[in-house]
Amino acid sequence: MNAPELDADGRRYRGAAPGQRQQERRARLIDAATEAFGTDGYRNTTVTTICAAAGVGKRYFYESFTDSEDLLLEVYREVAARMLEAIHVGIGDVEAEIATRVRSALTAYFQLILDDPRVPRIAFFEILGVSPTVDRAYHDVLDALIDICMALLTPYVDLDNHPAVSVRMVVLGLVGAILIIAQKWVLDDYRQPLEDVVDSGFLVVTAVLERIGSVSE
């Protein structure tokens, strides 16, 4: 006979406390959902399917998530965190030339998209149009991405000669351009070589910096 999920007083058993076991179940559900949403799509995936893939009883799904949308939000946050971290690491040494840092950040971003196609499917497509709550999460991530790019590019903007420039609006435009390049690359099944896609993004960023600041190869 199998041991019950919890002792009557919530004591540790099978080598793990109840809270630890809940965290393990939650992690398995997120992993299973990342795979399902990133391959079959959010709208084609049910809670039952995710629970089966995670090896978690359906009743335990609701100890961590209110519904599938709540799970989607958590999956999206984790995917977005991977993208932001890749860019942050790619930016690298503050002593390096700005052109080197821009190219490195773009390479890290596009490399992640190439290495794990689940990431762009979730971050670019499955997240859109689900609900106002999910839309807000998308825009929160967009703001975080703009903040990273602001920190990188603002020191190179010549505000003395361009006092009317809103740096944040310029960076928003650059981020939007990179996102469109990335989305088109994914929709075209990564037909262009990685180096060409990076070059395209690099040209967009440096062209703007050459207009309102200075950057060199």
Straight-line N-to-C gap: 69 Å
Shape: elongated
Order of helices and strands: HHHHHHHHH
Specify Rg, calculated over alpha carbons. Answer: 21 Å
Oligomer classification? single chain
Beta percentage is: under 5%
Taking pLDDT < 50 over at least 5 consecutive residues as the criterion, the unreliable ranges are 1-13
Class by alpha and beta content? mainly alpha
**Number of strand segments:** 0
Provide a quick synopsis of the model.
By secondary structure, the protein is mainly alpha-helical. It has 9 helices and no strands. It is elongated and about 60 Å long.
What does this structure look like?
The chain has nine helices and no strands. The chain is elongated. The N and C termini lie far apart (69 Å). α1 packs across α2, α7 packs across α8 and α8 (167-187) packs antiparallel against α9 (194-212). It is mostly helical and 217 residues long.
Task: Please specify the SSE layout and strand pairing.
Blueprint: H1 18-39, H2 47-54, H3 58-61, H4 68-91, H5 98-115, H6 118-126, H7 132-153, H8 167-187, H9 194-212
Helix pairs in contact: 1-2, 1-4, 1-6, 4-5, 4-7, 5-9, 7-8, 8-9
